[in-house]
Amino acid sequence: MAEGAATARLEAGSFRDRDGRVFYRDGRVYRALSEEGLEDWKRLAATRFFPRMVEAGKIVPTETADLPPSSLESLPGPWVAALEHERIPFVTYPYEWCFSMLRDAALLQLELVAAALDEDLIPKDATSYNVQWRGCRPVFIDTASFENLAPGDPWVGYLQFCRLFLYPLLLTAHLDIPFHPWMRGDLEGPTPAAMSAVFGSWRRRLKPGVLRDVYLQAKLQAGAAEGDAAVRGELREAGFPKELIVANVKRLQGLVDRLRWRREHSEWAAYDGDNTYDSEARGVKEQFVADVAAERHRKLVWDLGANTGRYSLLAAAHADRVVAFDADHLAIERLYRRLRKEGPDNVLPLVMNLAAPSPGLGWRHGERASLGERPSPDLVLALALIHHVVIGAHVPLPDFVAWLGDLGADLVIEFVTKDDPMVKRLLRNKADRYHDYEPEVFEACLAERFEIVRREGLPSGTRTLYHARPRSLPTSP
């Protein structure tokens, strides 16, 4: 089970979701169940598909929890039992995934719907927030969302599947529009009406999935709103055979499986092969990172500005897991595809702009955790990054170094001077107002928060690598 935003702030906290109350004790994740929820769980546990999917790593391991009654009595609500879920170590959200991650998560959701239907169960919803990641492998976490399929009932999760899986995929696959701002701006995903406006021309409406799942859905939604119709009740009364749901799920599986994002170029996706490093400089840099990574085994490494993951992979050999962040969607897309084919299985790639990282979102900013509320690293890689943050995103150099210091982790950072071709590229057509972007200022800022263990200049003379350890800061009164 993934950490909810509430637990990122308070380990002993709890929060209510649609299927119960999730709460945390001693680092373990539980879900309190009502009588109805308990019956749903018993039916799910007795199916053939549930243990098969758990064994395949597609559903989070879950079992009935052995807890004293007092553990449930302290939670407001009519709870009669609890489940324990295996904990997902690093929670992520769909607006941080690349295209193929969202596509693979959608295929997992549809696979589970199809498997449940075979045994007359169906998920109550179809939200992409019910999928998390172990490295590059999606895992479904909401085991309490399955219920009996009542005769004549439609699949009520279909529209939610469209809004939180299919529509974002269509935006990127058909129009090369990034879905991240849409999903971060509305946690329920784009509406049929909004998507219909985007795919407004008939040429666009004839693209796969648009006419039926966007345009017609927008018309149906508008008609239902005008008539104030209870659509689910009307469908039940008319009789909605299970075979129609099965056929729709199979159709969606084929549609999603064929979707591809075909962009070939972005500003930085080719950086790994198009930069100022020669083979000697690359070798020195790789050895420096490998030496620091091999000093001791780490639980969690953050690779900031990971690009296509060259140094993430070096760190992964000496860590439980690595989270590889980059603002370039295509770079993360390529890294994800490579990891799915070749491994390793302990690297998680995410689309993240460090100058505008994921904030706390939802009710009271607590439904989706900010980046700062998630597990902290014990090693940070910040290679060929600082000039992008300071010059490209206008973040003051002292502020960026202070933020790195706040992470409380060992640091491998590369300083790139203004004489470097990549920095000159960033300064092109800009007035140079970055007076604090100098090696002396950087080292002074670094020394305030870190002990510099080692430094090594690269052969170009414009780049220097640093290994630094955080200083112990006095406790504030």
Sum this structure up briefly.
Helices cover 42% and strands 18% of the residues. The protein is an alpha/beta fold and 477 residues long.
Point out poorly predicted stretches.
2-16
Structural class: alpha/beta
Report the major sheet: 7 strands, mixed
Helix residue percentage? 40-55%
Fraction in beta strands: 15-25%
Q: Which value, in Å, is the CA radius of gyration?
A: 25 Å
Q: What is the general shape?
A: globular
Number of strands: 16
Spatial arrangement of strands, main beta sheet: 12-11-10-13-14-16-15
Distance between the termini: 37 Å
Multimerization state: single chain
Given the structure, what is the number of helices?
A: 19
Can you give the mean pLDDT?
89
